[in-house]
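Final report, Chapter 2: Outcomes

The project's central promise was a pipeline that accepts a single protein chain and returns its three-dimensional structure in a standardized token representation, suitable for archiving and comparison. That pipeline is now operational. To close this chapter, we reproduce one record exactly as it appears in the project archive, with the input sequence first and the structure output second.
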Amino acid sequence: MSKLLVSPKAESGEIHDITPQSAEWGYVGFAAHRLKAGESVSASTDSTEVILVMVEGKANIRAAGEGYAEDFGELGDRMNVFEKTPPHCLYVPNDSKWSATATTDCTIGVCRAPGKGNYKAQRLGPDGINTETRGKGANTRHINVIAMEDRDVADSLLVTEVFTPSGNWSSYPPHRHDEDDFPRMTYLEETYYHRLNPPQGYAHQRVWTEDGSLDETMTVHDHDVVLVPKGHHPCGVPWGYELYYLNVMAGPLRKWRFQNHEDHNWIYERDNK
């Protein structure tokens, strides 16, 4: 199995805990928890900032740091991720703690990257999350923009949700963001947390570099995570199934600048005339 494909380690509880150490990179961490009603989880953020994403279901969430403790109440109203509505999200800064107690069965995504203490704990959604459509034809996909650079809400994290309709492609045309050369390109590591509808479906994701040093094509299933340390990384879902993924990106600069693959950039140019 590819080192870039991470299958869930359990069916419930903490199903993922990806760290910079386990991913062998420097910035991005991602965890996911599937809780039954009444179950709880808590964690310290240490040197990382965190964005909690209520992927589906509801939970009571608290956040505490030096000099404060705040109960944010029950977050979540999307009982199935494929309802596609903007999610409830919470930002928690570094050197803090957070806890969640499920009030229904729920899935919580924990997006992590280095924090600098510039932002306080705060709700980020659903209010303030813009929904947009990108692409044309079989390249059409729908995005919930949780925390990209146009929202001044985080030190490092860039977070989005993407819904790819049945039979469509996403993260396409192929593009990369693996050089620290702003404004031409920014270096951003990335994780994809995938979901399928119906859940027995599958999708494909390819991660490759133009020099051929990396070229992996993976079959992804419900709850799998794909790591993108560098290179191009499009994905496609067969007819009959919908694909969702939660993206986490981070690097030395909180800006998203990418380059399309030169062989396939004509698709972008044609569709954006």
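Archive annotation: The two ends are 41 Å apart (CA to CA).
This record, like all others produced under the grant, will remain available to the consortium after the project formally closes.
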